[in-house]
Amino acid sequence: MSTAAAALVVAAGLTACSSEEPVDDGPCAATAASKTNGARSINLPDTQVSVVSPGQGEAKPLTVSPDAGTRQEVTLETSSTEASIAPTAKGSDKNEVQKTQQQLVTPLTARIVCDDPTSLELGIGAPTSKDTDLAPLLTDLDGSTAGLSFAAGMSPTRLRLKPNDSAQSPARSSLEQSLIGALDYAVPLPTTPVAPGATWRAVRTVSAAATVTQTMTVTLVSRKGDVLDLDVTVSEEPVNSVFAIPGSDAKLHISRYSMSGTGSFVVDLRRLLPTTGTLTMKGGRELVGDDPNRPILQQNEFTLAWKKSK
């Protein structure tokens, strides 16, 4: 977009509810407000992309060119389930089974920054959840804001999140975990030309309770103009044997670990978020504490889905 065109779009997007309080409600964001409004800034994993096969036919660049003339309305749903079998207490020969699930559905309004196609501003609607304890707290998130920075190839590098002041900690935490969980599985594009049937590999290091090397293999199933159909397979391997217990300084030893999955996405080169897409990851791990004869066994599943809101 030219400087003059950007200026016109910015001007069109600024309306005034009073002469002193302009409201930025245009199709693109007049400024990257999330960079200056006190939002919490969260680094996202760097991604290394390499083309495995260029595909068949004429290779064309996957040029990302965000449309500043329209906003994107999408809904993100994430769900994570963990089932554990663990000793009830030190010295006990009994085990207990625990199951936890976190599920969140969040409507998002995404607007590219008018003069910066690498920055995206997000308006957050009221999330919903199957968790009956969490659900009543989520309405306070309605109207929260966020921002994303992108590197080449539609790869997110930073999340900026600003929940409403009225939102309580469980609601804030669930929103942050959902967004980060989805962005950790963002599908990056190669910066070299490819044809239908092409495959590329994206490798990133994801730090959580267990730090893992994530390898994503992407296949360009088809291309129609700026719209790409992509299939993905994902595998993860721990970089070491350390499992840091969340909310504690304690650590366990990872003796076995597996996590893999598949998915498919529709990506529009004029948008920075997927148009639609699903991914399901499943796996398990064996964790050892003070007693090597009494390991903790866990089964894990993570799913995400992007859907058009309108």
Automatic annotation (TrEMBL):
<feature type="region of interest" description="Disordered">
    <location>
        <begin position="36"/>
        <end position="97"/>
    </location>
</feature>
<feature type="compositionally biased region" description="Polar residues">
    <location>
        <begin position="36"/>
        <end position="53"/>
    </location>
</feature>
<protein>
    <submittedName>
        <fullName>Uncharacterized protein</fullName>
    </submittedName>
</protein>
<feature type="compositionally biased region" description="Polar residues">
    <location>
        <begin position="72"/>
        <end position="83"/>
    </location>
</feature>
